[in-house]
Automatic annotation (TrEMBL):
GO terms for biological process: nucleocytoplasmic transport. The keyword Amino-acid biosynthesis does not apply. The keyword Translocase does not apply. This is Glutamate-rich protein 3-like. It comes from the Eukaryota. InterPro entries: Leu-rich_rpt, LRR_dom_sf, RanGap. GO terms for cellular component: cytosol; nucleus; perinuclear region of cytoplasm. The lineage of its organism: Eukaryota, Metazoa, Chordata, Tunicata, Ascidiacea. Keywords: GTPase activation, Leucine-rich repeat, Repeat. Pfam families: LRR_6 (PF13516). GO terms for molecular function: GTPase activator activity; small GTPase binding. The gene is Erich3. Coiled coil: none annotated.
Length: 207
């Protein structure tokens, strides 16, 4: 039975690795599939879904602009790898981390990475279907000077309440580039606050 258990774990780890490869390949422009698969093998995923050795390094000749790591059960080490990758790859413009069950603690490495100020090119941040709630976005407003280019944010299905909604309202108000925010689904923010955010965004789109 021990042999079967070991084989199952190995198979599960390989499946998770293939998921990472699939998502990496999907959003990479001008980089061949063979190169990405070769590089990703250096960053195996455990049966718990955590990246063990970080994400592959991209050459300056073919900079990575979009990274999708949806629904792969990123753990603490996985998020640390993502944060390090974000800092080391300033060309990244779009980051997808939907459906990873990230808590307020789990999301912290991402905020710390963004607060480093070494990636000012990030335009889109997708964090739907996680679990970080109000506490997970407590540092969002502090990022206003560090992510001046961010223009799209997806925070649906995160259990955010009115407290977090007001933080988001301030963040959107103080960041002129924000033109799209999704947070009406799966959160508990008052209609008045949601309306305030939508009004700010709508006015910017009309300019």
């Amino acid at each position: 039975m021990a042999g079967l258990s070991s084989l199952y774990k190995q198979h599960h780890a390989r499946r998770n690795e293939q998921q990472v490869i699939k998502h990496l390949v999907k959003d990479i422009i001008n980089v061949s599939t063979a190169e990405i698969i070769s590089e990703t093998k250096k960053a195996p995923v455990t049966e718990a879904g955590e990246l063990e050795q970080g994400l592959p390094e991209m050459s300056s000749e073919f900079p990575l602009t979009s990274l999708s790591l949806n629904k792969i059960k990123l753990g603490a080490r996985g998020m640390k790898a993502v944060a390090d990758f974000l800092v080391d790859n300033p060309s990244l413009r779009s980051l997808h981390l939907n459906g990873n069950s990230l808590t307020s603690t789990g999301i912290l490495p991402l905020w710390q990475g963004l607060l480093s100020g070494r990636n000012n090119n990030l335009k889109q941040l997708f964090l739907a279907k996680n679990q970080f709630g109000d506490q997970g976005i407590a540092h969002l407003h502090a990022m206003k000077c560090k992510t001046s280019g961010l223009n799209e944010l997806n925070l649906n299905d995160n259990g955010i309440t009115e407290k977090g909604g007001n933080e988001l309202l301030n963040f959107v108000r103080d960041n002129e580039d924000v033109k799209k925010v999704r947070l009406s689904r799966g959160n508990r923010i008052k209609h008045k606050t949601l309306k305030g955010i939508r009004k700010i965004v709508a006015q910017r789109l009309q300019r």
